[in-house]
Write a structure and sequence with these properties.
427 residues, mainly beta, Porin, 14-stranded antiparallel barrel, elongated, disordered N terminus
Length: 427
C-alpha cells in the first residue's frame, strides 16, 4: 500500500510542476478566464449533472456528501481535448488544445464516510485576437493584437459522512492559485514603433463548499435521490505588475521606452452559488436526473482585472439533464452488457455580458448550450473503467460585434478502484 501512496503523490507533484495551455476561446479574455467545470468525465458525459448521485466505485466532484457512499479506494485522472470553431459572420477561425483536466483520489473511511483530494483547473486563459481598422482607401490604418495565457488551478480536500440512514453531508476546502499574462500590442500606420500594454498577475484564494444528499426507496425497483451543494462566497486576490512600453515588432518585441511600470492589485468576488439536484434510478442499472444551479453576479475590482469597459456580469443559471444505463453490470457472457452508456444536455447562462459594439450600453449575454454522450468501458475487473466522453455545443452569437463558438470536446479518463485496507483473516 505504501508503494501505491508514493506513486499517487509522485503524480501530483509532477502535475503541479508544469503549466498547461488549456483554452483556445476568445471569451477567456475576460476576468480571470473561463471557469472550468468541477465534474468528472462520467458526469460531463451526462450534461454535467450529479449533485444528487452517489456511487460506491466512482468519485463525484460536484458534492462532497457523495463520499459517504464510497466503498473502494478510487483514483482517477482525465485528459480533455477541446476543439473550437469561432465565427463572426465574415470569417471562421479554428483552435484546439489538449490538457490534463484533473487528478483526484478518494479513500473510504469505514463504512459510512470518505475523503478525497485532488488537483484540477479552476479557470483558464488562452486567446489570440486581432482587430484591424481601415482607412478610406481600404488600407490598414491600425492593427491591435490581444494575447493571453495562464489561469488558475485548484487543490482540494473533501470529507463526507452519513449522519443517519439515507442522509449524508460533506464539506470541501479549496486552495486556488495561478498566474495570468495578458498583453495588447497596437501598431499604427506610418509609426515606427508599436505600443504594448502588458499585465502579469498572480492569483490566490481560498473557498469552501458543502452539501448534502438524501436517498430513499420509492418502491422495490426505483430509488429517489435528492442533493444540494453550496459554494460559499469567496474572494480571489490578484497581485501583479502593469507595463506600457514602445517596441518594435520586427525585433522580437524588445522593450524600448517604458511609459508605465507599476504594481497593481485586483479582486474577484464570487457570491454564494447554489445547486439543487434530483434523480431516480436503480442501483448498478440506470439513473436519470437533473441539476439546477444559480448565482448572483460576479464582481471585479482593481485595475488589473477591472480595466476593460466592454464587459459586465449578470446572474448565473444552469440546467443539466442526463443519465446512464448499464444493461447488466455483472454479466459474465457479454462484455457490452457491462458497459455503461451515458447521455445528457446542458443549458447555461454564463453570467458574462459583453459589449461587442463598444458604446458602453449594449451588453449581450453569452450563453452556452451543449449535448453530451459517453461510455464507461470495464477494464481488468468490474471495478475499474476507461471512460470516453464527447460534447457538442455552441457559445455566444453572431451579432452586435460578437463571436459564436461551436465546439467539440473529447474526454478520456481512467477510474481505477482497489481495496487498500483489508482486514486480515485467520483460518
Amino acid at each position: 500500500m505504501i508503494r501505491k501512496i508514493i506513486v499517487v503523490v509522485t503524480l501530483f507533484v509532477s502535475v503541479i510542476s508544469f503549466a498547461q495551455k488549456n483554452n483556445a476561446s476568445a471569451y477567456s479574455f475576460f476576468g480571470i478566464g473561463d471557469k472550468n467545470s468541477s465534474n468528472t468525465v462520467e458526469q460531463l458525459s451526462m450534461g454535467g449533472f450529479g449533485v444528487s448521485l452517489s456511487d460506491a466505485f466512482r468519485l463525484n466532484l460536484s458534492n462532497p456528501a457523495s463520499l459517504s457512499g464510497l466503498k473502494f479506494t478510487a483514483y482517477s485522472l482525465a485528459i480533455e481535448n477541446k476543439n473550437i470553431w469561432a465565427k463572426d459572420g465574415n470569417d471562421t477561425q479554428a483552435g484546439a488544445t489538449t490538457y490534463l483536466s484533473y487528478l483526484v483520489m478518494g479513500i473510504p473511511l469505514g463504512n459510512n464516510a470518505g475523503m478525497s483530494f485532488g488537483l484540477l483547473p479552476n479557470t483558464s486563459v488562452g486567446y489570440s485576437l486581432t482587430a484591424t481598422e481601415y482607412d478610406s482607401n481600404n488600407d490598414i490604418n491600425e492593427l491591435t493584437l490581444y494575447k493571453g495565457e495562464g489561469g488558475s488551478n485548484k487543490v482540494f480536500l473533501g470529507f463526507g459522512a452519513q449522519i443517519f440512514e439515507g442522509f449524508s453531508v460533506g464539506l470541501q476546502g479549496n486552495y486556488i492559485f495561478g498566474n495570468i499574462e495578458n498583453s495588447i500590442i497596437n501598431q499604427q500606420k506610418d509609426v515606427a514603433l508599436a505600443t504594448k500594454y502588458e499585465t502579469l498577475s498572480n492569483l490566490k484564494g481560498f473557498s469552501l463548499n458543502g452539501g448534502f444528499q438524501y436517498k430513499t426507496k420509492l418502491n422495490s425497483k426505483v430509488d429517489l435521490h435528492l442533493g444540494a451543494n453550496f459554494d460559499l462566497a469567496n474572494d480571489i486576490d490578484t497581485e501583479g505588475e502593469e507595463y506600457v512600453y514602445s517596441t518594435s515588432i520586427s525585433s522580437g518585441e524588445i522593450p524600448r521606452d517604458t511609459i508605465l511600470n507599476k504594481k497593481s492589485t485586483g479582486l474577484l468576488k464570487s457570491p454564494l452559488k447554489t445547486t439543487f439536484g434530483v434523480g431516480f434510478g436503480k442501483e448498478n442499472k440506470w439513473y436519470a436526473g437533473m441539476d439546477y444551479s444559480f448565482q448572483e453576479a460576479l464582481e471585479l475590482q482593481g485595475s488589473i482585472l477591472n480595466n476593460y469597459s466592454r464587459i459586465s456580469y449578470d446572474k448565473y443559471n444552469k440546467i443539466s439533464i442526463g443519465g446512464f444505463y448499464t444493461p447488466k453490470f455483472n454479466s459474465i457472457t457479454s462484455y457490452w452488457n457491462r458497459v455503461t452508456y451515458r447521455a445528457g444536455v446542458k443549458i447555461e447562462q454564463t453570467g458574462l455580458l459583453v459589449d461587442g459594439i463598444g458604446n458602453g450600453t449594449d451588453f449581450t449575454s453569452i450563453d452556452d448550450f451543449g449535448i453530451s454522450f459517453g461510455v464507461g468501458l470495464p477494464v481488468s475487473n468490474q471495478l475499474s473503467n476507461l471512460n470516453l466522453g464527447f460534447e457538442l455545443g455552441k457559445r455566444g452569437k453572431i451579432n452586435k460585434g460578437l463571436v459564436q463558438e461551436n465546439y467539440l470536446n473529447f474526454r478520456l479518463s481512467f477510474s481505477l478502484n482497489d481495496k487498500w485496507f483489508k482486514k486480515r483473516e485467520i483460518f
